[in-house]
């Protein structure tokens, strides 16, 4: 990094430009390196192509002085995506497409390319121009990929940015999740693809790393399709995933004899994935990755599992409307003060706990913080002063940080003792335990704040970031360079007086150094001891022996100052790296405190209560509200609370009926969200709640096409339902909204009924089942643990009033047509729908066996027209006289038969005759 920074000089730019101008022949604009005559290229373009050949799948930013340039197809692609002008190097047939921008705007452009899922390789000048024979040497110093980002401008503060390395075999899948900017590193193994996707979805990775040649493997394609945001896919060397090699690599990185402490014994797939992920980080960032100092294994049973579609349906992290945080549970509950806390909270909501002691520990902490409002807000004020410790430490450890990062780290660390002292005074065990890691770093904070100035420059090479008084030698050199400048000013004044040339100036440029400039009109007054250096349009430039001497002193002092400052920066950085594990522990404590404070703020401000979480299999919520819907209601609207009780003994499956728009989905979702919040350690929007631990939450809500997966709405619905039936247990919470609506009524009803029976008889999971099939309420008569509930409405003056109240019993009507009317369907369509509904309700078929539904009321009055219209018949009905059919004769004979006066034999004979007439015997 230091070398990189040293190259950022204007002088380098001049040399490179000169090199540019003297190299007109750069070949044709057919890009691939292999296809061109390398020998005929200029040395610099040869160098470019050599570097590019090592990084073929990246956009190569090639440093040329103060600019990054791109060539060939990279230039074409980048100019379009970045909206920068495409130019050409050289002319005629040898034109090479090229584009570029000043080095200091690189972050912005990197961010854009990463957003498009591309990788960027940064190729820097690693020798000083003119330092040796030939052209400046260049090397790729970092590769930035969607999953390997360190820069604040590219990263969202509240969101994690994970790489997921995957490998698979007969035993299943191994995954490693690595966050380059913070050093978080986890592994897990999965027996099936669904389980793998569940584990990955918790962190929503930006990039997948798979073994060479596997990018198109069905496993990879499916993972990409099933995640809510398709990640970029990179391939890593196959050998890096190989178990023994990966294990050796990990052992050497963590400096341990065995990987058993990381839970990797007997887990070849997880080990392979972890080894490959860490190697990818080291290879792309070209560093030792010291901040990755721990690796933990995620156990499935440790947290409440939600599959990707359930998490999406419940809008836990993102709203379904636009994929943003607003309108999601996270959007409501995130009142954190730091990026660290926001990321922690998102993690807690995507993986709620399954361990009662841990849940209770969080709830105790939230209870204490919720009850002490003044003190809580003081904590918030302190937390706001803490920067992103994880990312600051990560950047500095990976060699990508600058002096501003040191200063920000120093300021943040200096707040920790205050935070620690406040937490140590708490009663809740979890809060108290956070104080420990916060007290370990005052020494580092002190050094950083004493060393770095208040407003250091972004670019290290610009210098001036070490505070006076921190380093004696540096102070001396700085004094010399500034006093040298004073001397130059005195010389200028003296020479003006000596020559009488009042416009005489001492100036500086990189080629000639310091010189005296005299305008043409004053040349007659130039003394003999001036040595002419250069003539320009309006003036002449001179030097003197005295000026040369001072220049030497000033420049030497400035160079020495730069060298010293960079050296001091490296020393400070090394100190940060030494303290990295302690910084990461402190960051973890800050994040936990912040997330708990955020829960407490919501609890206090939104009127939440502490849930009772236990290991029973029941669930009971009194006066429950939907945490998001209640916050979205407009002025004058208020949320109607509802009670829900699920019990394995007598209310395991609740069938919820009610008109459209009544609030069925809302009440079911609020039950799921309440359970999820409770297990994440949050208070819940209810008067009282008792939640028996859930192992998984499943939701099958709404019907969304998944065209990307090539499946129809109904297919998606059935696939998800089948997943639930296979994976739900007695401890699960299942939310099913309108199962079967994606197909014909009879098919849908049959499927819904069979699914409900299966859940009751075989699965035993606590379930809520909303449906428009009123027939389903009959299930309660047959099955002991089925209970019917409906959402009440009132009819008043021909209008439907939604009461939003959940009451026992089944709904008798749908009011779908009333809702359609509310939605503005044309009046004639609404009244025709009413007519059709009446027909349907009075029987399916008319006497002639035709669908009654189509008959218009007016037509019913006229026997001539009976049964003549097709479903949704046209404006001019075609009159066809009813053809006597065998069926209608048989029906007529049946109708005429007086069964109560027949002997059994007569009845049998009649049956046989009718069958013969139908041709079935
Ligand atoms: N308890 C409540 N208090 C206040 N408003 C509510 C309540 N429940 C639902 N609502 C409002 O009613 C709207 C419709 O609710 P919801 O989508 O749950 O109805 P639904 O019965 O599932 O409808 P459909 O059968 O058409 O899917 C919600 O968007 C919300 O604004």
UniProtKB/TrEMBL annotation:
Residue span, DNA mismatch repair proteins mutS family domain: 732-748
Similarity comment text for this entry: Belongs to the DNA mismatch repair MutS family.
Coiled-coil residues: 540-567
InterPro entries according to UniProt: DNA_mismatch_repair_MutS (IPR005748), DNA_mismatch_repair_MutS-lik_N (IPR007695), DNA_mismatch_repair_MutS/MSH (IPR017261), DNA_mismatch_repair_MutS_C (IPR000432), DNA_mismatch_repair_MutS_clamp (IPR007861), DNA_mismatch_repair_MutS_core (IPR007696), DNA_mismatch_repair_MutS_N (IPR016151), DNA_mismatch_repair_MutS_sf (IPR036187)
CDD domains: ABC_MutS1
Function in brief: This protein is involved in the repair of mismatches in DNA. It is possible that it carries out the mismatch recognition step. This protein has a weak ATPase activity.
Assigned keywords, A-Z: ATP-binding, Coiled coil, DNA damage, DNA repair, DNA-binding, Nucleotide-binding
Alphabetized PANTHER family for the sequence: DNA MISMATCH REPAIR PROTEIN MSH1, MITOCHONDRIAL (PTHR11361:SF34), DNA MISMATCH REPAIR PROTEIN MUTS FAMILY MEMBER (PTHR11361)
Annotated positions binding ATP: 658-665
SMART domains in the cross-refs: MUTSac, MUTSd
Organism: Corallococcus praedator
Protein name stated in the entry: DNA mismatch repair protein MutS
Pfam families cross-referenced by the UniProt entry: MutS_I (PF01624), MutS_II (PF05188), MutS_III (PF05192), MutS_IV (PF05190), MutS_V (PF00488)
